[in-house]
Amino acid sequence: MLIKLYDLAGAEDDCRFSPFCWQVKMALKHKGLNAEEIPWRFTEKEAIAFSGQGLVPVLVDDDKIVNDSWEIAHYLETTYAARPSLFNGNIGESGALFIKFWSAQAISPLIFRIILSDLFENLHEKDKAYFRESREKRLGMTLEEFATPNDETITALQTALSPLREVLERQPYLGGEQPYFGDYIAFGQFQWARAVSPIQLIAKDDAIYNWRDRLLDAFDGYARNASGYVV
Amino acid sequence: MLIKLYDLAGAEDDCRFSPFCWQVKMALKHKGLNAEEIPWRFTEKEAIAFSGQGLVPVLVDDDKIVNDSWEIAHYLETTYAARPSLFNGNIGESGALFIKFWSAQAISPLIFRIILSDLFENLHEKDKAYFRESREKRLGMTLEEFATPNDETITALQTALSPLREVLERQPYLGGEQPYFGDYIAFGQFQWARAVSPIQLIAKDDAIYNWRDRLLDAFDGYARNASGYVV
């Protein structure tokens, strides 16, 4: 039975912007697995109530239901152990765990400041009030106050990305010669932006740009063929 | 023949504060290797001229001469391959490489702001002019302008350390159940501070504090027994 993945969508069904869902979608491809990617909006809580919580990604594999991108990656690694590894063992899992929290602390808030206006524009109308209320509560300010897509934020992002850049100037992927789940965590951040915003985050001569290009091309251009801006 | 390590020292021979030398010293212990740790000062360029450059750590193992902490870790991993691994394979090496650049970009500049005055006080008199000139050139400001050991910098450090903290709340070491070279890279930052400054960087209820405690205790309290402040 085809795996089902509930995947966050915007106003258009094909606008798939969730960085967490992108992690999972790349992990599925890495494992050579296809999935039905079901568009889902923030306010469609009842559609995923069966998972016992209200956020995507939610993966349904036969009778197994798994939510949270990190948990899903582990589920895939364990269940499909004979297929290409996402972690390459415990030491790789530890590395990916660091990338997960680094991405959340150092990168995500800056990209969010840059793309927030574009992201909000791309939301489904029925999601906009929920998104505004939940994010403004979390941020402690209005969306308009938080959104700062200016040169200063883009410069701060370049500095914050420096560890990623330094590694990618020395090897093609965070995982070495091949991508691992840590790559997909970081790549998800750029797919988040690409799906909704024409703002260029990374210069074309940046090692990060070339790495992103390789991942856009991976799996027969799976990520490149997704709806998004050419930036 | 006993391995020799040229190790940065301050005014007192036993004040060993280089974070890069600490990485190597912990790596040597990890491999079960003892070394003669030779005190060296910034201006003693002639003493390590045989290495073809002017910075420590410099490791001399029989007829092999290796400088740069990353290169030394690789040398030890390759030469002493049958002993406990520092990297646990290519994926661990990639993880440690990320920690190296993250530490340099996100952590080191903040700790430097906090401990700089104390560090300068602890330098050997003959090193002070060299240190001031080289660092002021690099920083583009005077040492006194850069040194900001205040609450704001300490708070910024807590935020920057969040990826390390999040991982260590879930497992005892960056390497998982056991430390690997990535742990020693991060630990070196704290040994840098501990050797010269009484300022407490980390609260006692922080997962980072407990991790640091475990590494201070490792190898029969090797790092704890080094000269430094109890912070």
Structure, explained:
Two copies of one chain form a homodimer. A four-stranded mixed beta sheet of chain A has the order 2-1-3-4, with helices on one face. In chain A, strand 3 and strand 4 form a beta hairpin. Chain A is 52% helix and 9% strand. Chain A has helices at 19-30, 69-79, 90-122, 128-139, 143-146, 151-160, 162-168, 181-196, 207-221, and strands at residues 3-8, 35-40, 58-61, 64-67. With 231 residues, chain A is of the alpha+beta class. The interface between A and B is medium-sized, with 33 and 33 residues.
Helix content of chain A: 40-55%
- Our count of helices of chain A gives 9
Count of DSSP E strands of chain A? 4
The greatest interface here is: A-B, 33 and 33 residues
Helix and strand content put the structural class of chain A at: alpha+beta
Oligomer status: homodimer
The chain-level mean pLDDT of chain A equals 98
In terms of DSSP E residues, the strand content of chain A is 5-15%
Distance between the termini of chain A: 36 Å
Strand order of the largest sheet of chain A: 2-1-3-4
SSE order of chain A, one letter for each helix or strand: EHEEEHHHHHHHH
Unreliable spans of chain A are none
Query: Which geometry of chain A do the CA atoms define?
Result: globular
Pfam family, one (chains A, B): GST_C_7
Domain GST N-terminal (chains A, B): 8-84
Protein name (chains A, B): Glutathione S-transferase family protein
Essential attributes:
homodimer; about 230 residues; alpha+beta; 4-stranded mixed beta sheet; 9 helices; globular; Glutathione_S-Trfase_N (chains A, B)
